[in-house]
């Protein structure tokens, strides 16, 4: 699975990148802003975005997720402590993984998203994750 990481905290982004790669997935890019995420999606595509909500430069991960979904068909897992109650979250996102999380939960969240995108029930669900579908 090709994954785009959108996280403005460099240490968190690096950790996520390593976790995704260790699980055998391809990281197509790491972005700290909504505009960079959109540029990377246009350039490399992705099957899934791991999307923080509060991004650098005051940009919003929910807005970025909407653009990724509308323009490129890329769904997002929102990876954030608190997810705002906005109706478009459920349209652009496939689920929410609450911070703090560990590597096993990230990998399980990706597997749950993969299964859901195939129309199958997820094999397991991390405790801190909820699917929207």
What structural keywords apply?
133 residues; alpha/beta; Rossmann fold; globular; 20% strand
Task: Write structural notes for this entry.
- The structure is a single chain.
- This protein has helices spanning 10-22, 34-44, 61-72, 88-92, 103-117; strands at residues 2-6, 26-31, 48-51, 76-79, 93-97, 129-131.
- It has 133 residues and is an alpha/beta fold.
- A six-stranded mixed sheet has the order 2-1-3-4-5-6, with helices on both faces.
- Helix 2 (34-44) packs parallel to helix 3.
Short synopsis of the structure:
The chain is 42% helix and 20% strand. It has 133 residues and is of the alpha/beta class.
What's the architecture in CATH terms? Answer: 3-Layer(aba) Sandwich
State the distance separating the first and last CA atoms: 20 Å
**What is the count of distinct domains?**
1
- The quaternary structure here is single chain
Helix and strand layout, with pairings?
Layout: E1 2-6, H1 10-22, E2 26-31, H2 34-44, E3 48-51, H3 61-72, E4 76-79, H4 88-92, E5 93-97, H5 103-117, E6 129-131
Parallel strand pairs: 1-2, 1-3, 3-4, 4-5
Antiparallel strand pairs: 5-6
Helix pairs in contact: 2-3
